[in-house]
Amino acid sequence: MNAFEAQAAKIEATSPYLSAFIRPDRKFLRMDWFSYNIELDGLDVGPSSGQIQFMADSDFILTQINAENCDFRNEIGILLQITDLSTGKTFYSAPTPMVQVVGTDGFPYLLPVPRLIAPKTTLQFDMTTPGVVRTPSIFLALVGYRVFYGGPN
């Protein structure tokens, strides 16, 4: 680790915002910006689903969700539900209009509070519509930080 990386790791570990997500029982090594991506097929043939498997070597702090290939303001009724298959918990109380949870016009949706996702977690993405809406494939990006640890603290 060079001097810059060492200083960045020290700042990340002591920042009140970031340190809230660091496991106290593990030795913090570093944080890297990262994006997990998924492409969901268009809705012209029915509901669309997909999964992201998170890497085993790091936690992931989800800070924003981005979408591409669709103007959600013109595609009324596209609903999204994200389910953590490891815990069975959903991100939303019900499938939610995509315009409310993925951002618009190239601007990402910033989560009000970052969400910590454990290693080896699988997230299920289900996109549906109550009506007949034809959409192209939609590309989602979950943006945040991978947190790497060494042995016990």
Topology at a glance:
Blueprint lengths: L2 H12 L1 H4 L6 E15 L7 E6 L5 E10 L10 E6 L11 E2 L11 E9 L4 E7 L9 E15 L1
Antiparallel strand pairs: 1-8, 2-7, 3-6, 3-8, 4-5, 4-7
Structural overview:
The protein has 153 residues and is mainly β. It has a single domain (33-152), classed as Jelly Rolls, CATH 2.60.120. Helix content is 10%, strand content 46%. The chain contains two helices and eight strands, in the order ααββββββββ. The chain has helices at residues 3-14, 16-19, and strands at 26-40, 48-53, 59-68, 79-84, 96-97, 109-117, 122-128, 138-152. The strands form two sheets. Strands 1-8-3-6 form a four-stranded antiparallel β-sheet, with helices on one face. A four-stranded antiparallel β-sheet has the order 2-7-4-5, with no helix packed on it. It starts with a helix and ends with a strand. The mean pLDDT is 83.
